[in-house]
Amino acid sequence: MPDRGGGPTGPRIRVGRPSRRVRTLLMTLGVLAVLAMAFVMFAGFWTDWLWYRSVEYSSVFTTTLWTKIGLFLVFGLLMALAVGLNIWLAHRLRPPLSAMSLEQQSLDRYRMSVAPFKKWVLLAITALVGLIAGASASGQWRTWLMYVNGVPFGQKDPQFELDVAFYAFDLPWYRFLLGFGFAAAVLSLIAAALTHYLYGGLRITSPGARATGAATGHLSVLLGIFVSLKAVAYWLDRYGLAVKSSDFKATDNWTGLRYVDANAYLPAKTILFCIAVICAVLFFATLWRRTWQLPVIGFGLMVLSAILIGGLYPAIVQKFQVQPNEQAKEAEFIQKNIDATRDAYDIDDAKVDDYTGTSTTEDSAKLRAGADAAASYRVMDPNVVSPAFQQLQQKRNYYQFPKTLDVDRYKGADGKEQDTVIGLRELNLDGLPKRNWINDHFTYTHGYGAIAARGTTTGTNPVGSPDFTESGLPTTGELDKGYEQRIYYGEKTEQYSIVGGPQKELDYEQDGEKTTSYKGDSGVSLSNAFNRAAYAVSFSEPQILYSGAIGDGSRILYNRTPKERVEAVAPWLTIDGDAYPVVVGKRIQWVVDAYTTTNGYPYASRTTLGDTTADSLTTNQRAVVAQQNQVNYIRNSVKATVDAYDGTVKLYEWDTEDPVLKTWRKAFPGTVEPRADIPQDLMDHLRYPQDLFKVQRELLTRYHVEDPRQFYSGSDAWQVPDDPTNKEPGSVPPYYLSMKMPGQETQTFSLTTTFTPKGRPNLGAFMAVDADAASKDYGTIRLLRVTSTVKGPGQVQSELNGNDDVAEFVRNLKGTDSDIEYGNLLTVPLDGGFLYIEPVYTRGGTQNYPLLRKVAASYGSKIVFENSLGEALNAVFGVEDSDTPTPPTEPDEPGDTTEPPATGDAALKKAIADAQKAYTAGEKALQEQDWEAYGKAQADLEAALKRAAAAQPEAGGSGAGGSGGDAAGAGGADAEKAGADEADAVKADAAASDGSGGEAGDRSS
Fold first, then answer.
1. How confident is the model at residue 483 (pLDDT cuts 50, 70, 90)?
2. What are phi and psi of 296, to 5 degrees?
């Protein structure tokens, strides 16, 4: 534009103004920068939407998103309007200009500086408080959804007779509204007071009236609103007493009313409510009276009443009425707390029976037979044997197993169900031969196969190793034939992978590399450039945008751990710390137990999930994923599955009566499938979750007592003992075990634990829950309260450590540079007493993984340390080995001096098996330098070989006359040679297997 204001010197010269081309370039760069920042912010939102759509839970994303947006807009606008309206009103009510005092003169420069920008200042302040309030309100989306979708519990609290849903769903929302109202009132009051002061409505140092009538009326109304909200708070506090936590020596984390609450605090809150209402009316009356005299007096009265009625009076009641006879005064309220807590944690049906803890049976054979029927003793400890799985079945360095394996049930070759230790061979990127972007995310993408071993027996290659029922690469064995072995989703699979495109994946290595390309429909397509750009920004990896390894069919897999996926699709659930794999329906499925919780169950004592679910094994291994860490109601309401191949997530309703689950199903319809849709083959593997069990056992240390007087005294309080087999401090973990409790006819897959009396080491109680989801008694809690003095787990472990046989065993280990490792100390009720079984492993020397070497057993006052479970049971009950062949009896007729040798295929197989057993026993004795045992094993081996040689009765056929005798003799020689040859083959196979690793062990077993 030409300069129209030229002076006598001619047109003004604009110095340094950029040219149009430069301005256009700068403007373009600015627009591009804004668009780039907008795309960066949009990329996270877009990738989240794509992920939820890929797992077919887009309704969770949209419901959560729109709820957050709605709360943000509504409460952000309300706060902005409240503050902005009061600023505008204070400005509107400003007094006219008059002779200025020194105070007003100093403020005038601020008024002058603000005057040109008043609208912008008002918009900036209201926008700022609106954004902060909206962001805070959007975080309450769970509270809002529970409020609008709340389902009645059908149970009323004993004090106010309101449905529990009021405390669980409604009261939290009312408290949020109240808090928001207080914030709006305080911010409006501050903003209005500052505006009045800036424009002369309020004076601090000037002579005369301190406030104009308009300012007095405006601020009085705001104070009246504040006091009115305080009155509402006093009224809600009455109901809050039912869910209030307080210190009480009867129990930690006491929740609910006590005597002083019902008889002092409750009437005090009602009185304070009435005083606050009167005080609020006095503040509102200043609109007509234009004086603060009465409101100030009323406010002072309210403060004084709060101190005297709300603080001093309850303290007097507690001191002079409750403390002199606290047990009697609190009995009624303790009973309410006991009933509510037992119901809230689903322990109200726990069956508590007295149990002597000592056996009166003197028949050793009967006890020995009863021990076999009492339990399937798991000598393969899933917390110890993971290194053995790693060493024998890892196969490649880029595979790994979890530190703690899982226990499940599978049918063996005989069709009978057996306890099984199982773990998945997952990917371990730290073991790759070369780390780069292609290897990490394109080539090595998945693990391979489920590895399983019997829990009650050991393998022979080497001796004491896991007895694998599924092994190898690819795996073979007793699990479902032909199941999909590739593991794209697992507990250790935390990196993203890009699959299905032009870049081939390494499937597994056996006789060369086998490659594959992902055929599942999991993950998000990267076929279009926009998605690739979004993920490049979201993952901070620009190569995703331009890499030639990505093309048609490429899909990105992420959020790959089972707990991570379930938490994402059901953000209203609390996730159990241990996801476990099952092989069903030709697929590996991860099962994830999930809980619904609330912190608002009246009278139920609270617990901290993170602390309660911790034990000696949870450190850095597993932890509950909690939406609320402090809870006082919990249900295992959902069983979730995650497909290890395609990541499909399914949520199944489990607790059909849980009102919290019903509420969330209303909020997120269609996300949880009915319980009836659970496939039967999956049902056979579902089990009682460990974290819920640990919460319940912690509560039962006190709440097994139902008499309020005994509860108050704490005379029968228990505690969960420390794990005696672990050097690290921590509670003993619960153990899965097939066993039968007194009164049960058959063994049931159970979850068990022990208790000791508080402050004492002896056994106080034993707890077991039916953990088999297919059982009609699933979830039944049985408690045995020990009525006599019985050794606790720690005492048994101490006695074992001081046992002479153990001391000698440890001394011998020192010469071989090996260490001893104790397995799970199993406790089993048996004939009025308790049988302790503990596997003992060695690790070190020539092998860097644990092998089962000994089994300890304790019953009554006797403790033994033997080579096998059978020998330990025989020794602890004082009976002979039932597997030892019965010696020949005296002949009935003269001339019959010996029994004829056993013949036939069965006898041959038995002899060969005995030879194998004797050989491995000899090798074991040789390693341990136990020469007596070695000599016995060699003698047993020789005897077995002789029986093998004589075990074929029809080797040479039968003939007539003398030729028949010759043929028989020839047949006997042939049989002896055949038996010897086969026995030599057994010895050769055993010798070869001694150093051949896991696959030979599989063949041998």
1. very high
2. -65, -40
Q: Which residue, 151, 182, 174, is CA-closest to 164?
A: 151
Q: Which pair of tokens denotes residue 615?
A: 């034990």
Specify the DSSP class assigned to residue 515: E
pLDDT band at 978 (very low <50, low <70, confident <90, very high): very low
User: Which residues lie below 8 Å from residue 390, measured CB to CB, with a gap of 6+?
Assistant: 400, 401, 849
How buried is residue 403: exposed, middle or buried, by Cβ count under 10 Å (0-12/13-18/19+)? middle
What single-letter DSSP state applies at residue 671? Answer: S
Q: Which residues are CB-contacts of 857 (< 8 A; sequence separation ≥ 6)?
A: 835, 836, 837, 838, 863, 864, 866, 872, 873, 875, 876
Chain segment 714-751, per-residue pLDDT in tens:
888 999 999 998 877 789 999 999 999 998 989 999 99
- How high is the mean pLDDT of the chain? 85
Q: What confidence score (pLDDT) does residue 209 get?
A: 56
Model confidence at 248: pLDDT above 50: yes
H-run or E-run covering 114: helix 102-114
The candidate with the shortest Cα–Cα distance to 340, out of 247, 266, 242, 245, is: 242
Q: Find out whether the peptide bond into 724 is cis, omega within 30 degrees of 0.
A: no
Please tell me the predicted confidence (pLDDT) of residue 338. Answer: 95
Tokens of 271: 């009185």
Q: Please check whether residue 451 is in contact with residue 424, taking contact to mean a CB–CB distance below 8 angstroms.
A: yes
Query: Which has the closest alpha carbon to 618: 436, 854, 383?
Result: 383
With contact defined as beta carbons under 8 Å apart, do 949 and 975 qualify? Answer: yes
pLDDT at 392: 92
Pairing state of beta strands 781-786 and 351-355?
parallel
CB 780 within 8 Å of CB 349:
yes
CB neighbours of 889 closer than 8 A, spacing ≥ 6? 899
Q: Report residue 727 CA to chain centroid gap.
A: 23
Strand, helix or coil at 357? Answer: strand
User: How far apart are alpha carbons 200 and 198 in whole angstroms?
Assistant: 6
CA distance 821 to 800: 13
Write the CA distances from 860 to 363, 754, 872, integer angstroms: 14, 16, 14
User: Residue 639 in contact with residue 686, Cβ under 8 Å?
Assistant: yes
Element (H, E) at 144: helix 141-149
Answer whether residue 981 shows pLDDT above 90: no
Side-chain half-sphere exposure of 1000, counting CA atoms within 13 A:
15
Please list, in sequence order, all residues whose beta carbon lies within 8 angstroms of the beta carbon of residue 175, skipping any fewer than 6 positions away. 236, 240
Report phi then psi at 998, rounded to 5: -70, -35
Pairing of strands 833-844, 555-557: unpaired
Contact 539, 575 (CB under 8 A): no
Q: Quick one: pLDDT at residue 812? A: 82
Give the whole-angstrom CA distance, residue 125 versus residue 595.
43
Distance of alpha carbon 562 from alpha carbon 661, whole angstroms: 21
Q: Are the CB atoms for 388 and 850 separated by under 8 Å?
A: yes
Considering only the C-alpha atoms of the chain, give the largest distance between any 2 of them, rounded to a whole number of Å: 156
Neighbours of 665 (CB within 10 A): 19
CA distance 31 to 38: 10
Q: Which of 121-125, 196-200, 732-736, 912-916 has the lowest mean pLDDT?
A: 912-916
Residue 11 has pLDDT above 70, yes or no: no
- Report residue 991's pLDDT band, with 50, 70 and 90 as the boundaries: very low
Per-residue CA distances from 204 to 101, 102, 194, 198, 200 (Å): 11, 11, 12, 11, 10
Angstrom CA distances, 733 to 749, 767, 784, stand at 16, 12, 18
- The helix-helix angle for 326-344 and 690-703 (nearest 10°) equals 160
Q: What is the mean pLDDT of residues 496-515?
A: 90
Residue 572 in tokens: 């209203």
Q: CA nearest 448: which of 491, 486, 492, 397?
A: 486
Q: Which residues contact 37 (CB under 8 A, 6 or more apart)?
A: none
Neighbours of 236 (CB within 10 A): 16
